[in-house]
Amino acid sequence: TTETGRDFIRDVIQADLDSKKHSRIVTRFPPEPNGYLHIGHAKSIALNFGIAQEFSGRCHLRFDDTNPTKEEQEYIDSIQADVRWLGYDWGSDLFYASDYFDRLYEWAEGLIKTGHAYVDDQSPTEIRTRRGTLTEPGQNSPFRDRSVEENLDLFRRMKAGEFPNGARVLRAKIDMASGNINLRDPVLYRILHAHHPRTGTKWSIYPSYDYAHGQSDAIEGITHSICTLEFEDHRPLYEWLLDKLPVPSKPHQYEFARLNLTYTLLSKRVLTMLVRDGHVASWDDPRMPTIAGLKRRGVPPAAVREFVKRIGVAKANSVVDVGMLEFSIRECLNRTALRRMAVLRPLKVVIENYPEGQSEQLEAINHPDDPAAGTRRIAFGRELYIERDDFMENPPKKFFRLSPGTEVRLRYAYFIKCHDVIKNAAGEVVELRCTYDPATKGGNAPDGRKVKATMHWLSAAHSKPAEIRIYNQLFVNPTPDAANFVADLNPQSLEILADARIEPAIAESNSSEPVQFERQGYFVRDKDSTPDHLVFNRTIGLRDTFAK
Length: 548
Ligand code: ATP
Ligand code: MG
Ligand code: MG
Hints:
With about 550 residues, the protein is an alpha/beta fold. It contains 13 helices and 27 strands.
Protein backbone atom coordinates (compact mmCIF):
# COMPACT_ATOMS: atom_id res chain seq x y z
CA THR A 1 0.00 0.00 0.00
CA THR A 2 0.99 3.61 -0.48
CA GLU A 3 0.80 6.63 1.83
CA THR A 4 -2.91 6.91 1.16
CA GLY A 5 -3.43 3.43 2.58
CA ARG A 6 -4.34 2.29 -0.92
CA ASP A 7 -2.35 0.66 -3.66
CA PHE A 8 -0.71 2.52 -6.54
CA ILE A 9 -3.51 1.68 -8.98
CA ARG A 10 -6.21 3.07 -6.73
CA ASP A 11 -4.04 6.15 -6.20
CA VAL A 12 -3.85 6.69 -9.97
CA ILE A 13 -7.60 6.26 -10.29
CA GLN A 14 -8.33 8.70 -7.49
CA ALA A 15 -5.99 11.24 -9.11
CA ASP A 16 -7.67 10.76 -12.51
CA LEU A 17 -11.07 11.36 -10.94
CA ASP A 18 -9.84 14.39 -8.97
CA SER A 19 -8.26 15.96 -12.06
CA LYS A 20 -11.43 15.18 -14.07
CA LYS A 21 -9.36 13.24 -16.58
CA HIS A 22 -12.16 10.70 -16.25
CA SER A 23 -15.62 11.24 -14.87
CA ARG A 24 -16.25 7.54 -14.58
CA ILE A 25 -13.94 4.56 -14.22
CA VAL A 26 -14.27 1.52 -16.46
CA THR A 27 -12.12 -1.55 -15.85
CA ARG A 28 -12.31 -5.03 -17.30
CA PHE A 29 -11.43 -8.60 -16.46
CA PRO A 30 -10.30 -10.21 -19.75
CA PRO A 31 -9.87 -13.99 -19.42
CA GLU A 32 -8.98 -16.16 -22.34
CA PRO A 33 -11.51 -19.03 -22.27
CA ASN A 34 -8.85 -21.71 -22.56
CA GLY A 35 -9.12 -23.17 -19.07
CA TYR A 36 -10.68 -22.72 -15.66
CA LEU A 37 -9.86 -19.71 -13.52
CA HIS A 38 -7.37 -20.10 -10.68
CA ILE A 39 -6.75 -18.14 -7.52
CA GLY A 40 -4.34 -15.85 -9.39
CA HIS A 41 -7.28 -14.76 -11.52
CA ALA A 42 -9.21 -14.11 -8.30
CA LYS A 43 -6.66 -11.40 -7.52
CA SER A 44 -7.29 -9.75 -10.87
CA ILE A 45 -11.07 -10.16 -10.53
CA ALA A 46 -11.09 -8.66 -7.05
CA LEU A 47 -8.92 -5.79 -8.23
CA ASN A 48 -10.92 -4.92 -11.34
CA PHE A 49 -14.41 -5.51 -9.94
CA GLY A 50 -13.38 -4.12 -6.55
CA ILE A 51 -12.19 -0.87 -8.11
CA ALA A 52 -15.43 -0.53 -10.06
CA GLN A 53 -17.42 -0.94 -6.84
CA GLU A 54 -15.31 1.42 -4.77
CA PHE A 55 -15.22 4.20 -7.36
CA SER A 56 -18.80 3.77 -8.62
CA GLY A 57 -17.55 2.69 -12.02
CA ARG A 58 -18.11 -0.37 -14.12
CA CYS A 59 -16.17 -3.54 -14.72
CA HIS A 60 -16.62 -5.46 -17.95
CA LEU A 61 -16.24 -9.18 -18.25
CA ARG A 62 -14.59 -9.66 -21.61
CA PHE A 63 -13.70 -12.98 -23.12
CA ASP A 64 -10.44 -12.64 -24.96
CA ASP A 65 -11.48 -15.30 -27.45
CA THR A 66 -8.95 -14.76 -30.20
CA ASN A 67 -7.35 -18.20 -30.25
CA PRO A 68 -10.05 -20.68 -31.34
CA THR A 69 -7.83 -23.76 -31.20
CA LYS A 70 -7.66 -23.64 -27.40
CA GLU A 71 -10.99 -22.15 -26.45
CA GLU A 72 -14.20 -23.90 -25.46
CA GLN A 73 -17.73 -23.08 -24.38
CA GLU A 74 -17.18 -25.12 -21.19
CA TYR A 75 -14.53 -22.60 -20.16
CA ILE A 76 -16.73 -19.62 -20.99
CA ASP A 77 -19.46 -21.07 -18.76
CA SER A 78 -17.13 -21.97 -15.90
CA ILE A 79 -15.51 -18.52 -15.92
CA GLN A 80 -18.89 -16.82 -15.56
CA ALA A 81 -19.90 -19.19 -12.75
CA ASP A 82 -16.61 -18.61 -10.94
CA VAL A 83 -16.71 -14.82 -11.14
CA ARG A 84 -20.26 -14.91 -9.76
CA TRP A 85 -19.28 -17.34 -7.03
CA LEU A 86 -16.56 -14.93 -5.95
CA GLY A 87 -19.32 -12.40 -5.44
CA TYR A 88 -18.88 -10.13 -8.46
CA ASP A 89 -21.34 -9.12 -11.11
CA TRP A 90 -20.72 -7.61 -14.53
CA GLY A 91 -24.38 -6.69 -14.97
CA SER A 92 -24.99 -6.21 -18.68
CA ASP A 93 -21.31 -5.63 -19.41
CA LEU A 94 -20.48 -8.98 -20.97
CA PHE A 95 -18.26 -8.75 -24.05
CA TYR A 96 -16.31 -10.92 -26.43
CA ALA A 97 -13.23 -9.82 -28.33
CA SER A 98 -14.64 -11.83 -31.25
CA ASP A 99 -17.50 -9.31 -31.48
CA TYR A 100 -14.88 -6.83 -32.69
CA PHE A 101 -13.36 -9.01 -35.41
CA ASP A 102 -14.93 -6.98 -38.24
CA ARG A 103 -13.77 -3.68 -36.83
CA LEU A 104 -10.30 -5.01 -36.02
CA TYR A 105 -10.04 -6.23 -39.60
CA GLU A 106 -11.04 -2.84 -41.03
CA TRP A 107 -8.50 -1.13 -38.83
CA ALA A 108 -5.79 -3.57 -39.96
CA GLU A 109 -6.51 -2.64 -43.59
CA GLY A 110 -6.18 0.95 -42.43
CA LEU A 111 -2.71 0.22 -41.05
CA ILE A 112 -1.72 -1.28 -44.41
CA LYS A 113 -3.02 1.77 -46.27
CA THR A 114 -1.04 4.15 -44.06
CA GLY A 115 2.11 2.07 -44.53
CA HIS A 116 2.13 0.75 -40.94
CA ALA A 117 1.61 -2.94 -41.67
CA TYR A 118 2.73 -5.51 -44.23
CA VAL A 119 2.16 -9.13 -45.14
CA ASP A 120 5.19 -11.30 -44.42
CA ASP A 121 5.67 -14.64 -46.19
CA GLN A 122 8.41 -15.83 -43.87
CA SER A 123 7.75 -18.97 -41.86
CA PRO A 124 7.10 -18.63 -38.12
CA THR A 125 10.61 -20.02 -37.48
CA GLU A 126 12.24 -17.52 -39.82
CA ILE A 127 10.34 -14.70 -38.16
CA ARG A 128 11.48 -15.85 -34.75
CA THR A 129 15.14 -16.29 -35.65
CA ARG A 130 15.30 -12.93 -37.43
CA ARG A 131 13.76 -11.09 -34.49
CA GLY A 132 17.19 -10.76 -32.88
CA THR A 133 17.88 -10.80 -29.17
CA LEU A 134 18.14 -8.31 -26.33
CA THR A 135 21.67 -7.47 -27.41
CA GLU A 136 21.33 -7.95 -31.15
CA PRO A 137 18.97 -6.05 -33.45
CA GLY A 138 16.58 -7.99 -35.65
CA GLN A 139 16.77 -8.16 -39.45
CA ASN A 140 14.21 -6.68 -41.76
CA SER A 141 12.00 -9.15 -43.55
CA PRO A 142 12.61 -9.37 -47.33
CA PHE A 143 8.83 -8.71 -47.66
CA ARG A 144 8.86 -5.56 -45.54
CA ASP A 145 8.77 -3.13 -48.44
CA ARG A 146 5.84 -4.55 -50.36
CA SER A 147 3.54 -2.00 -51.92
CA VAL A 148 0.28 -1.06 -50.25
CA GLU A 149 -1.61 -2.68 -53.16
CA GLU A 150 0.23 -5.97 -52.85
CA ASN A 151 -0.20 -6.01 -49.07
CA LEU A 152 -3.92 -5.29 -49.33
CA ASP A 153 -4.40 -7.97 -51.96
CA LEU A 154 -2.54 -10.58 -49.92
CA PHE A 155 -4.25 -9.65 -46.66
CA ARG A 156 -7.69 -9.92 -48.31
CA ARG A 157 -6.75 -13.30 -49.70
CA MET A 158 -5.55 -14.38 -46.25
CA LYS A 159 -8.98 -13.41 -44.98
CA ALA A 160 -10.67 -15.26 -47.84
CA GLY A 161 -8.92 -18.44 -46.75
CA GLU A 162 -6.69 -18.85 -49.80
CA PHE A 163 -3.54 -19.81 -47.86
CA PRO A 164 -2.74 -22.60 -45.43
CA ASN A 165 -2.01 -22.09 -41.75
CA GLY A 166 1.34 -20.44 -41.14
CA ALA A 167 1.87 -19.38 -44.77
CA ARG A 168 1.75 -15.66 -44.08
CA VAL A 169 1.18 -13.16 -41.30
CA LEU A 170 0.32 -9.50 -41.08
CA ARG A 171 2.95 -7.54 -39.17
CA ALA A 172 3.09 -4.01 -37.88
CA LYS A 173 5.94 -2.06 -39.48
CA ILE A 174 7.68 -0.49 -36.51
CA ASP A 175 11.40 -0.96 -35.92
CA MET A 176 13.41 -4.18 -36.21
CA ALA A 177 16.26 -2.54 -34.27
CA SER A 178 14.14 -1.41 -31.34
CA GLY A 179 15.54 -2.12 -27.88
CA ASN A 180 12.06 -3.45 -27.06
CA ILE A 181 11.58 -6.74 -28.88
CA ASN A 182 7.81 -6.26 -28.81
CA LEU A 183 8.28 -3.37 -31.24
CA ARG A 184 10.23 -5.42 -33.80
CA ASP A 185 7.40 -5.68 -36.29
CA PRO A 186 5.00 -7.66 -34.08
CA VAL A 187 2.51 -10.04 -35.66
CA LEU A 188 -1.02 -8.63 -35.88
CA TYR A 189 -2.80 -11.46 -37.73
CA ARG A 190 -2.09 -15.11 -38.32
CA ILE A 191 -3.80 -17.61 -40.61
CA LEU A 192 -5.79 -20.20 -38.71
CA HIS A 193 -8.36 -22.42 -40.34
CA ALA A 194 -10.24 -23.25 -37.17
CA HIS A 195 -13.81 -23.32 -35.97
CA HIS A 196 -14.49 -20.55 -33.47
CA PRO A 197 -17.15 -21.11 -30.76
CA ARG A 198 -18.85 -17.82 -31.67
CA THR A 199 -17.89 -16.91 -35.22
CA GLY A 200 -17.82 -20.43 -36.61
CA THR A 201 -15.84 -20.69 -39.83
CA LYS A 202 -16.30 -17.06 -40.85
CA TRP A 203 -12.64 -16.24 -40.21
CA SER A 204 -9.47 -17.82 -41.55
CA ILE A 205 -7.30 -15.22 -39.85
CA TYR A 206 -7.27 -14.27 -36.17
CA PRO A 207 -5.79 -11.21 -34.45
CA SER A 208 -2.90 -11.53 -32.04
CA TYR A 209 -3.32 -10.78 -28.34
CA ASP A 210 -1.42 -7.51 -28.67
CA TYR A 211 -3.51 -6.32 -31.57
CA ALA A 212 -6.89 -7.37 -30.19
CA HIS A 213 -6.43 -6.45 -26.58
CA GLY A 214 -5.80 -2.72 -26.57
CA GLN A 215 -8.29 -2.11 -29.38
CA SER A 216 -10.97 -4.02 -27.45
CA ASP A 217 -10.19 -1.83 -24.45
CA ALA A 218 -10.56 1.26 -26.62
CA ILE A 219 -13.83 0.11 -28.20
CA GLU A 220 -15.33 -0.54 -24.77
CA GLY A 221 -14.12 2.77 -23.33
CA ILE A 222 -11.96 1.11 -20.69
CA THR A 223 -10.21 3.83 -18.72
CA HIS A 224 -7.72 1.73 -16.76
CA SER A 225 -6.55 -1.49 -18.37
CA ILE A 226 -4.93 -3.43 -15.55
CA CYS A 227 -2.76 -6.42 -16.33
CA THR A 228 0.11 -8.41 -14.90
CA LEU A 229 3.78 -7.37 -15.03
CA GLU A 230 4.73 -9.57 -17.99
CA PHE A 231 2.87 -7.05 -20.13
CA GLU A 232 4.90 -4.06 -19.03
CA ASP A 233 7.14 -4.46 -22.09
CA HIS A 234 4.06 -4.65 -24.30
CA ARG A 235 2.83 -1.24 -23.18
CA PRO A 236 4.80 0.69 -25.87
CA LEU A 237 3.10 -1.49 -28.50
CA TYR A 238 -0.29 -1.03 -26.82
CA GLU A 239 0.26 2.72 -27.10
CA TRP A 240 1.69 2.61 -30.63
CA LEU A 241 -1.43 0.85 -31.92
CA LEU A 242 -3.83 3.22 -30.11
CA ASP A 243 -1.90 6.09 -31.62
CA LYS A 244 -2.02 4.79 -35.19
CA LEU A 245 -5.66 3.62 -35.24
CA PRO A 246 -8.91 5.63 -35.30
CA VAL A 247 -9.95 4.29 -31.90
CA PRO A 248 -12.85 5.91 -30.02
CA SER A 249 -10.98 6.23 -26.70
CA LYS A 250 -7.47 6.03 -25.26
CA PRO A 251 -7.25 3.60 -22.39
CA HIS A 252 -4.12 3.41 -20.27
CA GLN A 253 -2.41 0.18 -19.26
CA TYR A 254 -1.14 -0.41 -15.71
CA GLU A 255 0.72 -3.46 -14.51
CA PHE A 256 0.72 -5.21 -11.14
CA ALA A 257 2.47 -8.30 -9.78
CA ARG A 258 0.79 -11.59 -10.52
CA LEU A 259 -0.03 -13.87 -7.62
CA ASN A 260 2.27 -16.82 -7.03
CA LEU A 261 1.58 -19.20 -4.16
CA THR A 262 3.87 -21.73 -2.50
CA TYR A 263 3.18 -25.44 -3.08
CA THR A 264 1.19 -24.76 -6.20
CA LEU A 265 1.48 -23.55 -9.78
CA LEU A 266 -0.82 -20.85 -11.09
CA SER A 267 -0.57 -21.42 -14.78
CA LYS A 268 -3.39 -22.56 -17.01
CA ARG A 269 -0.89 -24.45 -19.11
CA VAL A 270 0.20 -26.55 -16.13
CA LEU A 271 -3.31 -26.92 -14.73
CA THR A 272 -4.56 -28.11 -18.12
CA MET A 273 -1.87 -30.79 -18.18
CA LEU A 274 -2.69 -31.89 -14.64
CA VAL A 275 -6.26 -32.56 -15.74
CA ARG A 276 -5.48 -33.92 -19.18
CA ASP A 277 -2.84 -36.36 -17.94
CA GLY A 278 -4.92 -37.56 -15.01
CA HIS A 279 -2.75 -36.26 -12.18
CA VAL A 280 -5.97 -34.90 -10.72
CA ALA A 281 -9.53 -36.04 -11.37
CA SER A 282 -10.91 -32.85 -12.90
CA TRP A 283 -10.65 -29.07 -13.04
CA ASP A 284 -12.66 -28.92 -9.83
CA ASP A 285 -10.59 -31.52 -8.03
CA PRO A 286 -10.31 -30.05 -4.52
CA ARG A 287 -6.51 -30.19 -4.71
CA MET A 288 -6.51 -27.78 -7.65
CA PRO A 289 -5.86 -24.07 -7.08
CA THR A 290 -8.76 -23.36 -9.43
CA ILE A 291 -11.74 -21.38 -8.19
CA ALA A 292 -13.87 -24.45 -8.95
CA GLY A 293 -11.49 -26.61 -6.88
CA LEU A 294 -11.54 -24.19 -3.95
CA LYS A 295 -15.31 -24.06 -4.11
CA ARG A 296 -15.69 -27.83 -4.15
CA ARG A 297 -13.19 -28.12 -1.33
CA GLY A 298 -15.43 -25.92 0.81
CA VAL A 299 -13.49 -22.67 0.79
CA PRO A 300 -15.94 -19.80 1.29
CA PRO A 301 -15.75 -17.05 -1.34
CA ALA A 302 -15.36 -14.52 1.48
CA ALA A 303 -12.10 -16.23 2.49
CA VAL A 304 -10.73 -15.79 -1.03
CA ARG A 305 -11.73 -12.13 -1.07
CA GLU A 306 -10.20 -11.60 2.37
CA PHE A 307 -6.96 -13.28 1.28
CA VAL A 308 -6.68 -11.19 -1.86
CA LYS A 309 -7.23 -8.05 0.17
CA ARG A 310 -4.54 -9.05 2.67
CA ILE A 311 -1.88 -9.68 0.05
CA GLY A 312 -2.51 -6.30 -1.57
CA VAL A 313 -1.42 -5.04 -4.96
CA ALA A 314 2.26 -4.49 -5.56
CA LYS A 315 4.54 -3.77 -8.45
CA ALA A 316 7.16 -6.44 -7.68
CA ASN A 317 6.68 -10.16 -8.19
CA SER A 318 6.87 -12.40 -5.16
CA VAL A 319 5.66 -15.76 -3.91
CA VAL A 320 2.96 -15.67 -1.24
CA ASP A 321 3.03 -18.35 1.46
CA VAL A 322 0.00 -20.60 0.99
CA GLY A 323 -0.26 -20.39 4.78
CA MET A 324 -1.73 -16.91 4.26
CA LEU A 325 -4.55 -18.33 2.21
CA GLU A 326 -5.09 -21.05 4.79
CA PHE A 327 -5.17 -18.45 7.54
CA SER A 328 -7.97 -16.58 5.75
CA ILE A 329 -9.89 -19.81 5.21
CA ARG A 330 -9.64 -20.83 8.87
CA GLU A 331 -10.56 -17.39 10.07
CA CYS A 332 -13.64 -17.31 7.91
CA LEU A 333 -14.77 -20.85 8.68
CA ASN A 334 -14.12 -20.49 12.41
CA ARG A 335 -16.68 -17.67 12.41
CA THR A 336 -19.36 -19.47 10.46
CA ALA A 337 -19.01 -23.25 10.62
CA LEU A 338 -21.21 -25.13 13.08
CA ARG A 339 -19.45 -27.62 15.32
CA ARG A 340 -20.11 -31.32 14.90
CA MET A 341 -18.38 -34.55 15.83
CA ALA A 342 -16.95 -37.11 13.44
CA VAL A 343 -14.57 -39.98 14.01
CA LEU A 344 -12.28 -40.27 11.04
CA ARG A 345 -10.42 -43.48 11.97
CA PRO A 346 -12.77 -45.27 14.35
CA LEU A 347 -11.80 -47.54 17.23
CA LYS A 348 -14.62 -49.36 19.02
CA VAL A 349 -15.09 -48.69 22.74
CA VAL A 350 -17.45 -50.76 24.89
CA ILE A 351 -18.58 -49.14 28.15
CA GLU A 352 -18.96 -52.25 30.25
CA ASN A 353 -20.94 -50.66 33.08
CA TYR A 354 -23.41 -48.97 30.74
CA PRO A 355 -26.66 -50.94 30.49
CA GLU A 356 -27.11 -52.94 27.31
CA GLY A 357 -29.77 -51.81 24.88
CA GLN A 358 -30.01 -48.34 26.41
CA SER A 359 -28.98 -44.93 25.22
CA GLU A 360 -29.47 -41.30 26.21
CA GLN A 361 -29.40 -37.90 24.56
CA LEU A 362 -26.81 -35.35 25.65
CA GLU A 363 -26.70 -31.69 24.80
CA ALA A 364 -23.92 -30.24 22.63
CA ILE A 365 -23.37 -26.64 21.61
CA ASN A 366 -23.31 -25.70 17.95
CA HIS A 367 -20.89 -22.79 18.08
CA PRO A 368 -18.78 -21.77 21.09
CA ASP A 369 -18.74 -18.05 20.16
CA ASP A 370 -22.33 -17.79 18.99
CA PRO A 371 -24.99 -18.70 21.54
CA ALA A 372 -27.65 -17.96 18.93
CA ALA A 373 -26.48 -21.01 17.01
CA GLY A 374 -28.10 -23.06 19.77
CA THR A 375 -27.57 -26.65 20.80
CA ARG A 376 -28.26 -30.12 19.50
CA ARG A 377 -28.66 -33.55 21.05
CA ILE A 378 -26.21 -36.38 20.55
CA ALA A 379 -26.73 -40.00 21.51
CA PHE A 380 -24.55 -41.81 24.05
CA GLY A 381 -24.70 -45.58 24.56
CA ARG A 382 -22.78 -48.66 25.51
CA GLU A 383 -20.85 -48.92 22.24
CA LEU A 384 -18.92 -45.94 21.00
CA TYR A 385 -16.26 -44.96 18.52
CA ILE A 386 -13.25 -42.89 19.38
CA GLU A 387 -10.41 -41.75 17.18
CA ARG A 388 -7.79 -44.47 16.80
CA ASP A 389 -5.00 -41.91 17.36
CA ASP A 390 -6.53 -40.97 20.71
CA PHE A 391 -5.52 -44.33 22.19
CA MET A 392 -2.06 -45.71 22.87
CA GLU A 393 -1.42 -48.98 24.62
CA ASN A 394 2.09 -48.00 25.70
CA PRO A 395 2.04 -44.22 25.70
CA PRO A 396 5.09 -42.01 25.98
CA LYS A 397 5.27 -39.65 28.94
CA LYS A 398 3.48 -36.67 27.40
CA PHE A 399 0.53 -38.62 25.99
CA PHE A 400 -2.53 -37.63 28.00
CA ARG A 401 -5.27 -39.18 25.94
CA LEU A 402 -6.66 -42.67 26.45
CA SER A 403 -4.38 -45.51 27.52
CA PRO A 404 -4.87 -48.45 29.88
CA GLY A 405 -5.61 -47.05 33.34
CA THR A 406 -5.93 -43.34 32.45
CA GLU A 407 -9.15 -41.41 32.69
CA VAL A 408 -10.30 -38.98 30.00
CA ARG A 409 -13.37 -36.89 29.27
CA LEU A 410 -15.67 -37.64 26.36
CA ARG A 411 -16.87 -34.25 25.23
CA TYR A 412 -20.39 -33.37 26.44
CA ALA A 413 -20.63 -36.85 28.05
CA TYR A 414 -18.70 -38.61 30.79
CA PHE A 415 -15.28 -39.53 32.10
CA ILE A 416 -14.21 -42.97 30.95
CA LYS A 417 -11.33 -45.26 31.91
CA CYS A 418 -9.83 -48.09 29.86
CA HIS A 419 -9.43 -51.53 31.43
CA ASP A 420 -8.80 -53.98 28.64
CA VAL A 421 -7.42 -53.93 25.16
CA ILE A 422 -8.74 -56.45 22.66
CA LYS A 423 -6.59 -57.38 19.68
CA ASN A 424 -7.08 -59.40 16.56
CA ALA A 425 -4.89 -62.28 15.40
CA ALA A 426 -2.48 -59.80 13.82
CA GLY A 427 -2.00 -58.08 17.14
CA GLU A 428 -3.87 -54.89 16.16
CA VAL A 429 -6.06 -53.19 18.72
CA VAL A 430 -9.68 -53.65 17.63
CA GLU A 431 -11.67 -52.78 20.73
CA LEU A 432 -11.29 -51.17 24.11
CA ARG A 433 -13.19 -52.23 27.19
CA CYS A 434 -13.89 -49.21 29.36
CA THR A 435 -16.05 -48.05 32.25
CA TYR A 436 -17.70 -44.69 32.69
CA ASP A 437 -18.44 -42.68 35.79
CA PRO A 438 -22.17 -41.80 35.76
CA ALA A 439 -21.51 -38.94 38.21
CA THR A 440 -19.47 -37.06 35.59
CA LYS A 441 -22.40 -36.46 33.23
CA GLY A 442 -21.89 -33.26 31.25
CA GLY A 443 -18.12 -33.53 31.71
CA ASN A 444 -17.28 -32.63 35.31
CA ALA A 445 -16.59 -34.76 38.38
CA PRO A 446 -18.47 -33.74 41.56
CA ASP A 447 -15.37 -34.66 43.59
CA GLY A 448 -13.36 -32.13 41.60
CA ARG A 449 -11.04 -34.70 40.04
CA LYS A 450 -9.43 -33.60 36.82
CA VAL A 451 -8.60 -35.26 33.53
CA LYS A 452 -5.98 -34.07 31.08
CA ALA A 453 -7.77 -34.79 27.82
CA THR A 454 -11.16 -34.24 26.25
CA MET A 455 -11.91 -36.37 23.23
CA HIS A 456 -14.58 -36.52 20.59
CA TRP A 457 -16.56 -39.71 20.10
CA LEU A 458 -19.77 -41.02 18.58
CA SER A 459 -22.33 -43.66 19.47
CA ALA A 460 -21.74 -46.74 17.34
CA ALA A 461 -25.43 -47.40 16.91
CA HIS A 462 -26.45 -43.83 16.10
CA SER A 463 -23.57 -42.56 13.98
CA LYS A 464 -23.54 -42.95 10.20
CA PRO A 465 -20.76 -44.19 7.95
CA ALA A 466 -19.05 -41.73 5.62
CA GLU A 467 -16.08 -41.48 3.32
CA ILE A 468 -13.80 -38.61 4.15
CA ARG A 469 -11.30 -37.17 1.73
CA ILE A 470 -8.26 -35.46 3.15
CA TYR A 471 -6.32 -33.19 0.83
CA ASN A 472 -2.69 -32.32 1.21
CA GLN A 473 -0.54 -30.00 -0.87
CA LEU A 474 -0.53 -31.00 -4.52
CA PHE A 475 3.23 -30.46 -4.73
CA VAL A 476 5.95 -31.40 -2.27
CA ASN A 477 8.13 -28.51 -3.31
CA PRO A 478 7.27 -24.99 -2.03
CA THR A 479 8.23 -23.61 -5.45
CA PRO A 480 7.44 -26.40 -7.92
CA ASP A 481 9.31 -26.43 -11.19
CA ALA A 482 6.77 -25.49 -13.86
CA ALA A 483 8.94 -27.06 -16.57
CA ASN A 484 9.10 -30.42 -14.80
CA PHE A 485 6.18 -30.29 -12.41
CA VAL A 486 5.40 -34.02 -12.49
CA ALA A 487 8.57 -34.70 -10.48
CA ASP A 488 7.33 -32.34 -7.76
CA LEU A 489 3.83 -33.83 -7.39
CA ASN A 490 2.95 -35.03 -3.90
CA PRO A 491 2.04 -38.73 -4.09
CA GLN A 492 0.08 -38.29 -0.84
CA SER A 493 -2.04 -35.34 -1.95
CA LEU A 494 -5.25 -37.32 -1.51
CA GLU A 495 -5.95 -39.59 1.43
CA ILE A 496 -9.28 -41.43 1.57
CA LEU A 497 -10.71 -42.47 4.91
CA ALA A 498 -13.37 -44.96 3.91
CA ASP A 499 -14.69 -45.97 7.35
CA ALA A 500 -15.33 -42.68 9.07
CA ARG A 501 -18.39 -42.09 11.26
CA ILE A 502 -20.36 -38.86 11.46
CA GLU A 503 -23.18 -37.46 13.55
CA PRO A 504 -26.58 -38.49 12.22
CA ALA A 505 -27.61 -34.82 12.06
CA ILE A 506 -25.00 -34.14 9.38
CA ALA A 507 -25.93 -37.24 7.45
CA GLU A 508 -29.59 -36.31 7.39
CA SER A 509 -29.27 -32.66 6.45
CA ASN A 510 -28.71 -32.00 2.79
CA SER A 511 -26.75 -28.90 3.53
CA SER A 512 -23.58 -28.06 1.72
CA GLU A 513 -22.69 -25.59 4.46
CA PRO A 514 -19.23 -26.10 5.93
CA VAL A 515 -18.97 -27.71 9.36
CA GLN A 516 -16.19 -28.04 11.86
CA PHE A 517 -15.59 -31.59 13.00
CA GLU A 518 -14.25 -30.92 16.48
CA ARG A 519 -10.49 -31.35 16.79
CA GLN A 520 -10.26 -32.30 13.11
CA GLY A 521 -10.86 -29.30 10.94
CA TYR A 522 -13.43 -27.95 8.52
CA PHE A 523 -15.38 -30.20 6.22
CA VAL A 524 -17.99 -29.95 3.52
CA ARG A 525 -20.17 -32.43 1.71
CA ASP A 526 -18.71 -33.33 -1.68
CA LYS A 527 -20.73 -33.40 -4.89
CA ASP A 528 -20.03 -37.16 -5.12
CA SER A 529 -22.03 -37.69 -1.92
CA THR A 530 -25.29 -39.67 -2.12
CA PRO A 531 -27.70 -40.65 0.68
CA ASP A 532 -26.28 -44.19 0.53
CA HIS A 533 -22.67 -43.14 0.36
CA LEU A 534 -21.84 -39.93 2.15
CA VAL A 535 -18.67 -38.17 1.09
CA PHE A 536 -17.06 -35.24 2.86
CA ASN A 537 -14.04 -33.18 1.90
CA ARG A 538 -11.71 -31.79 4.46
CA THR A 539 -11.42 -28.15 3.51
CA ILE A 540 -8.58 -27.56 5.93
CA GLY A 541 -7.26 -28.77 9.26
CA LEU A 542 -7.57 -26.70 12.41
CA ARG A 543 -3.90 -25.85 12.55
CA ASP A 544 -1.11 -25.35 10.13
CA THR A 545 0.56 -28.77 10.24
CA PHE A 546 2.49 -29.24 7.02
CA ALA A 547 6.24 -28.84 7.18
CA LYS A 548 7.58 -25.42 6.27
P1 ATP B 1 -2.11 -18.20 -17.10
O1 ATP B 1 -0.72 -17.66 -17.04
O2 ATP B 1 -2.52 -18.97 -15.91
O3 ATP B 1 -2.38 -18.92 -18.38
P2 ATP B 1 -3.30 -15.92 -18.27
O4 ATP B 1 -2.81 -14.59 -17.86
O5 ATP B 1 -2.85 -16.44 -19.57
O6 ATP B 1 -3.04 -16.94 -17.08
P3 ATP B 1 -5.89 -14.95 -18.84
O7 ATP B 1 -7.14 -15.69 -19.03
O8 ATP B 1 -5.31 -14.23 -19.98
O9 ATP B 1 -4.85 -15.99 -18.25
O10 ATP B 1 -6.00 -13.99 -17.57
C1 ATP B 1 -7.03 -13.08 -17.39
C2 ATP B 1 -6.54 -12.01 -16.45
O11 ATP B 1 -6.10 -12.57 -15.23
C3 ATP B 1 -5.36 -11.28 -17.05
O12 ATP B 1 -5.58 -9.90 -16.90
C4 ATP B 1 -4.20 -11.73 -16.24
O13 ATP B 1 -3.24 -10.73 -16.13
C5 ATP B 1 -4.83 -12.08 -14.89
N1 ATP B 1 -4.06 -13.11 -14.20
C6 ATP B 1 -3.72 -14.32 -14.67
N2 ATP B 1 -2.96 -14.99 -13.80
C7 ATP B 1 -2.80 -14.17 -12.72
C8 ATP B 1 -2.11 -14.27 -11.47
N3 ATP B 1 -1.42 -15.36 -11.15
N4 ATP B 1 -2.18 -13.24 -10.62
C9 ATP B 1 -2.88 -12.15 -10.93
N5 ATP B 1 -3.55 -11.98 -12.09
C10 ATP B 1 -3.51 -12.97 -12.98
MG1 MG C 1 -3.56 -14.18 -21.21
MG1 MG D 1 -1.68 -18.04 -20.36
